[in-house]
Write a structure and sequence with these properties.
alpha/beta, 5-stranded parallel sheet, 13 helices, globular, binds 5-amino-5-deoxy-1-O-phosphono-D-mannitol, Glutamine--fructose-6-phosphate aminotransferase [isomerizing]
Length: about 375
């Protein structure tokens, strides 16, 4: 049931405020996360963790990339993230003090399960945490610890609310880990919790920019290529924005860390290459602005997803869309991703593709 929406994808995009609230529900009490939300043995297992290894595919992998910025920046906890198909076909070093975190909406992704089983057979002592949306899945059954994302069923092949709720779950993991290990002051913990509780309302507000995003989509629909740029925690959001666009509209899209421009992709830039940037008002904005000047000087049309404080104004071929009010370190990637989902959606609808069932793709990739 599409609930009055034209596509499941649009319905699921709009379900995000509720899905995020549901994922937080019951996991926080009196401003503090409950480590037992991860399972009764979580507290004991988290105590000895010295590093985190995240393994996932596709959109779930992008959520893991965001988490790496958070864990290292806020907790100082060494964190690696790798796509499952690479991880399980090499000989990764997994030390006993690692927490293996498997991210998967479906819990049935073949490569992710293979990676889990590989670690299990070689390193039976390493604890495995599944962050998953499907309670009956193989991944959940085979893991030691589980945190369910409460996104509800995701039907559209393009993953949207699963990503947002994975990020919220990873933020809960950060809080639990920081609490158990004593690496997070009570004040910062309370501040992060307060920030998490504001996300459903911020997500709701981000959805109100739909008609402005449709206007941008109209400018993209005839393009062959698009380049998404971000820095810091917005780099994985650039990758995710590009994945969403290519997956459902079939426009060739790439995500790049903005600082890599001069190392290759700048050669692609001309008036036919639209550039989409994710530009919150943070300490990386000045750097990003000089990257935007570089592409603008070569004729690219720029689409800037900004926040209301971002000091930038629209010009002829520079479209600045403020999509949110003040956002924090944790909420920013979750919120900025939502307009990119809508952008991909509108481009696909304008092109007339099969939005919920893009060609060649399956919802759950159960074979390698
Ligand atoms: O079920 P999973 O989270 O393990 O799926 C991983 C990817 O197959 C999935 O995120 C895929 O990239 C989506 N179609 C992206 O929208």
């Amino acid at each position: 049931d599409r609930g009055g929406f034209k596509h499941f994808m649009l319905k699921e995009i709009h379900e995000q405020p509720r899905a995020i609230a549901d994922t937080l529900e019951g996991r926080i009490s009196e401003g503090r996360v409950l480590p037992a939300a991860f399972g009764v043995t979580a507290e004991a297992r988290f105590a000895d963790v010295a590093r985190i290894q995240i393994v996932a595919c596709g959109t779930s992998y992008h959520a893991g990339m965001v988490a790496r910025y958070w864990f290292e920046d806020i907790l100082g906890l060494p964190t690696s993230v790798e796509v499952s198909s690479e991880f399980h076909y090499r000989n990764p070093v997994v030390s006993r003090d690692t927490l293996l975190v498997m991210l998967s909406q479906s819990g049935e992704t073949a490569d992710t399960l293979a990676a889990l089983r590989m670690v299990r057979s070689r390193h039976p002592d390493v604890p495995v945490l599944a962050i998953c949306n499907a309670p009956e899945s193989s991944l959940v059954r085979e893991s030691d610890l589980v945190l369910m994302t409460h996104a509800g069923p995701e039907i559209s092949v393009a993953s949207t609310k699963a990503f947002s709720t994975q990020l919220v779950s990873l933020a809960l993991l950060l809080l639990a880990m920081g609490r158990v290990q004593g690496t997070l002051s009570e004040e910062i913990e309370r501040r992060i919790v307060a920030g998490l509780e504001k996300i459903p309302a911020l997500a709701q507000a981000a959805l109100t920019h739909d008609s402005a995003i449709l206007a941008l989509a109209e400018r993209l629909v005839d393009k062959q290529h698009a380049l998404f740029l971000g820095r810091g925690v917005m780099f994985p959001i650039a990758l995710e924005g590009a994945l969403k666009l290519k997956e459902i509209s079939y426009i060739h899209a790439e995500g790049y860390p903005a600082g890599e421009l001069k190392h290759g992709p700048l050669a692609l830039i001309d008036e036919n290459m639209p550039v989409i940037t994710i530009a919150p008002q943070n300490d990386l904005l000045e750097k990003l602005k000089s990257n935007m000047a570089e592409v603008a000087a070569r004729g690219a049309e720029l689409f800037v997803f900004a926040d209301e404080r971002t000091a930038l104004a629209s010009e002829e071929r520079l479209h600045v869309l403020p999509v949110t009010s003040h956002v924090g370190r944790i909420s920013a990637p979750i919120i900025f991703n939502i307009p990119l989902q809508l952008l991909a959606y509108h481009v696909a609808v304008l092109k007339g593709t099969d939005v919920d069932q893009p060609r060649n793709l399956a919802k759950s990739v159960t074979v390698e």
